[in-house]
Specification:
Length: 606
């Protein structure tokens, strides 16, 4: 059997996992199902490669599609701006390097054949490609696959947008990694955010907003190489080089320098969307809300501790048990001395790699330390030994001092003081704070204390609240030192966990009562009662579809479907008496009472 795997590995890329099938699948659909089950991946991660040629010149083209996508040559040609057809089978091996019965995208790389791919393929973290052997499939990182095929030279097509609905109707859809928030989610989200902001303001923070767009030079060089790959960057209609904000911290740094006369320490919180062009996943989106608290203008470690105490108070207010793991970036400087590394860029690469430990595991981090941080085996062993330091917080500080010696003295002192301060602030919650030397925070602007918050009620590698001290970031805009420290909540990720933990009850209803008109002659009085309820602070609405012929059953049915607990019904009898028939829609009980009595009952609760 042919196997072109070496084409991939010889180019410096790794195969993450191999899938060996017992027998060759009868058809592509069967192949997709078998491979997806064997590798525990989604069907959308299985890639099929097509050998095509342009209709005119017959130039070859390699096209990658999700395995379940049915090829439509007219559609694909329209998306690529050229007429396309399948490449002749008898010439496949001579041009693409693989025959039909063992076709794989891998040999085409060294033959100068241009490539195109449906963008959904590179939305995935990992994808499965054919090796050439019908019994062997290869799981690889999608970023590696794109780099293997030529990186930016690979044409990306959006076949979903190219599809046209019948009769010219535009197909309603959302971009991958983006989402709509319907009322049943927005109401509990807003309640969650209200709880968070109450805690923020209890700690003395005030609200702030900054623009969604920033000049690119404001963001570039401040986030780190990994983060800058994820910027949504473009030129606006005026030709300005701009980016959608990646986070809320760098815009705050710009603002603090621009308004340097703000009273210090300046304590602010901001809740707003940010955008990152990363691969969507469970609880991870390309547009999501961040919720930041920062303290600008003081170098005191008291404020590092206050941010950690704030994070714990937020999670307690939401009913979530968490562990806040913390470290100090100065520890990494001491580690650099142990490793014999003087190159700051290499240490930053090590820091970013170590920060991936919770999400990618120790084996993958070892690989990345060699591939992306250029570490030798001795250095990798020293790094892994360093982050494996365990015991109580006190034991870990002693072990750290012994391992790294004098270069770590300042870091050990700062960690000791922060730990003492935060334990004093939080009293009985001391066990919620845990030293973890794998916590590095991937962004390059952190300079001291760093921390991440992990739910203990659920198994998750993802932090829901994180931050740290960044004393040099604002100086880049101001020209003089301006210390700062902060903490950020991942609103969408946190909300997803609250739903999973059953701590959020989804509801799309805001009204307490629906005011129902039994007939058209009662409409005026119905509107007066509606206004009276609202004026008294009772959330009320009407659900009349035709004011000329109101249908009582229809109004009551709609109210029940929406989850409105009460209906205030007004007919000719109630019109004469100046009363309403207040009906509990869940319990099907009703009583005739005055509007004032109805207000009192509705305001009293269930």
């Amino acid at each position: 059997m042919r196997n072109y795997e070496q084409e991939f590995t010889n180019a410096g890329f790794k195969v993450l996992q191999r899938c060996t099938l017992e027998k060759a699948p009868a058809n592509p659909r069967e192949r997709t199902g078998l491979v997806a089950k064997a590798l525990n991946v989604g069907r959308e991660q299985i890639v099929k490669a097509l050998a095509l040629q342009s209709g005119g010149a017959g130039s070859p083209l390699l096209l990658l599609l999700p395995a379940d996508e049915r090829p439509d040559m007219k559609l694909i040609g329209r998306a690529l701006g050229q007429e396309l057809d399948y490449f002749p089978q008898e010439r496949l091996e001579s041009v693409f390097g693989a025959p039909l019965e063992a076709f794989s995208l891998l040999p085409a790389r060294g033959r100068g054949i241009p490539s195109a791919a449906d963008g959904r393929i590179f939305d995935q973290e990992t994808v499965v490609i054919a090796s050439g052997d019908p019994l062997l499939e290869l799981l690889v990182a999608s970023d590696d696959l794109r780099a293997f095929l030529g990186g930016e030279a690979v044409r990306i097509v959006d076949l979903e947008s190219a599809k046209q609905g019948k009769g010219g109707v535009i197909e309603p859809r959302t971009l991958k990694g983006f989402r709509d928030y319907l009322p049943e989610e927005m109401l509990p989200r807003q309640a969650m955010i209200a709880t968070i902001t109450q805690v923020f303001e209890r700690f003395g923070f005030a609200p702030l907003q900054t623009p969604a767009l920033e000049y690119s030079d404001i963001l570039l060089g401040k986030l780190g190489r990994d983060a800058e790959k994820l910027l949504f960057r473009f030129r606006d209609n005026g030709g300005r080089d701009v980016c959608l904000r990646y986070d809320l911290t760098v815009p705050l740094a710009r603002l603090a320098a621009q308004y340097a006369d703000l009273p210090k320490p300046f304590k602010r919180y901001q809740i707003a969307p940010v955008w990152r062009a990363e691969k969507p996943g469970r609880g991870r989106f390309r547009e999501f809300f961040q919720c930041d608290c920062d303290i600008v203008g003081s170098p005191s470690l008291l404020y590092d501790a206050e941010c950690m105490a704030l994070g714990l108070s937020v999670m307690k207010a939401l009913g979530v048990d968490v562990q806040i793991r913390f470290n100090n970036r100065k520890v990494l400087a001491a580690l650099a001395a142990l490793l014999g590394i003087a190159d700051e860029r290499q240490m930053m690469a090590i820091s970013r790699t170590v920060d991936k430990l919770p999400s990618q595991g120790s084996d993958r981090v070892r690989q990345l330390l060699a591939l992306e941080a250029s570490c030798n085996s001795r250095q990798i062993d020293q790094i892994m030994g360093f982050i494996d330091i365990a015991g109580t917080n006190g034991d870990m500080l002693k072990s750290l001092a012994q391992l790294l010696g004098e270069p770590a003295a300042q870091a050990v002192d700062e960690l000791t003081r922060v730990l003492g301060y935060v334990e004093n602030m939080t009293g009985n919650d001391r066990g919620a704070f845990r030293l973890d030397f794998s916590i590095a925070r991937g962004l390059d602007y952190y300079t001291g204390t760093v921390y991440e918050t992990f739910p203990t009620d659920i198994q998750s590698p993802s932090s829901v609240m994180s931050g740290g001290r960044y004393d040099n970031l604002i100086e880049r805009y101001l020209g003089k030192p301006m210390p700062a420290v902060g903490i950020s909540v991942g609103i969408d990720r946190l909300f997803s966990y609250l739903v999973e933990l059953g701590k959020v009850q989804k509801s799309a209803v805001t009204s307490r009562v629906c005011v129902v008109a039994m007939e058209a002659t009662c409409l005026r009085r119905t509107l007066e009662v509606l206004g009276a309820f609202r004026a008294a602070g009772v959330a009320a609405e009407m659900l009349i579809e035709n004011e000329q012929k109101p249908k009582v059953d229809r109004q009551l049915s709609l109210a029940a479907k929406k989850g409105i607990p009460f209906a205030a019904i007004i007919g000719s009898n109630e019109l004469t008496k100046g009363t309403v028939m207040l009906k509990n829609l869940a319990e099907r009980r009703q009583e005739e009472i005055t509007v004032e009595q109805a207000v009192a009952k509705l305001r009293a609760g269930p």
